[in-house]
């Protein structure tokens, strides 16, 4: 159902673009972007918040962190709409990116925490070594990106670099972790929600690449549409995970 919503929003956006009504298109997508993220975040938090505290399940915790991240991302989008009216592009990019970083950290905690728990349970690796390795990799990748932007993108705004580099590096690490989870759980029922989550984060990663390497900032319909579709895919992963949880509850009740 939620995927149909994403397709409907995309069709309406394309229709408004085709008829040349860019004003209505920008208003339509700019309002929907925070609304979609906030609504899906609240629904996901309502579905998994209480259960995660009772079950102490890492997978439940992952979905709670993802839902909380969506709520924080909605706040960043709202901040962007407010600052948009000041016509200060640099301030807009910096403020939106700055609010997104805590949301990124929430996603990272959820995904990496679940990966560490799964690897420890399967005896694949020592979970204690994962965090130092992530810190080292993210530091090297971040410094490399900063140097690259200074040398090859001299027109890039410093404030935008400050917020875009952590987003790109962080999302890249999360994508790698989700890929590892998918490979390990590829034959299980959890694969479906993980695929949706991976695709949603991937789309958001592409959005951040535009910010970082193309000197591209929000305030355009294309950017908002990318954000909406990303949030919808991530929300769809929460819905799929919740249905999966309902299946497990039915099986447990039948066994009793």
What does this structure look like?
With 256 residues, the protein is mainly α. The protein has one domain: Rhopdopsin 7-helix transmembrane proteins, CATH 1.20.1070. Helices cover 86% and strands 0% of the residues. It has helices spanning 2-18, 22-55, 58-84, 89-122, 130-152, 158-184, 191-213, 221-255. The longest helix is centred in the last third of the chain and has 35 residues, at 221-255. Mean pLDDT is 82; it is low at 247-256.
Write the layout of secondary structure elements.
Elements lengths: L1 H17 L3 H34 L2 H27 L4 H34 L7 H23 L5 H27 L6 H23 L7 H35 L1
Helix pairs in contact: 1-2, 1-8, 2-3, 2-8, 3-4, 3-8, 4-6, 5-6, 6-7, 7-8
Q: Which properties best describe this structure?
A:
256 residues, 0% strand, mainly alpha, 86% helix, 8 helices, Rhopdopsin 7-helix transmembrane proteins, disordered C terminus
């Amino acid at each position: 159902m939620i995927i149909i919503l994403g397709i409907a929003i995309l069709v309406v956006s394309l229709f408004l673009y085709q008829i040349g009504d860019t004003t209505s298109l920008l208003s339509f997508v700019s309002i929907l972007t925070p609304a979609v993220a906030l609504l899906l975040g609240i629904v996901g938090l309502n579905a998994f918040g209480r259960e995660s505290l009772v079950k102490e399940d890492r997978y439940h915790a992952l979905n709670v962190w993802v839902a909380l991240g969506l709520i924080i991302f909605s706040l960043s989008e709202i901040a962007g709409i407010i600052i948009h009216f000041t016509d200060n592009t640099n301030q807009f990019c910096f403020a939106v990116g700055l609010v997104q970083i805590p949301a990124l950290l929430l996603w990272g905690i959820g995904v990496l925490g679940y990966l560490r728990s799964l690897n420890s349970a399967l005896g694949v690796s020592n979970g204690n070594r994962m965090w130092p390795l992530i810190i080292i990799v993210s530091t090297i990748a971040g410094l490399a990106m900063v140097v690259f932007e200074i040398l090859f993108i001299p027109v890039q705004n410093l404030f935008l670099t400050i917020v875009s580099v952590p987003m790109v590096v962080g999302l890249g690490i999360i994508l790698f972790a989700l890929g590892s989870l998918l490979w390990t759980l590829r034959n299980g029922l959890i694969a479906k929600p993980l695929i949706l989550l991976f695709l949603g984060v991937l789309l958001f990663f592409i959005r951040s690449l535009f910010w970082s390497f193309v000197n591209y900032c929000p305030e355009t319909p294309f950017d908002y549409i990318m954000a909406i579709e990303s949030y919808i895919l991530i929300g769809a992963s929460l819905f799929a995970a919740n249905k999966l949880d309902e299946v497990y509850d039915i099986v447990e009740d039948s066994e009793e």
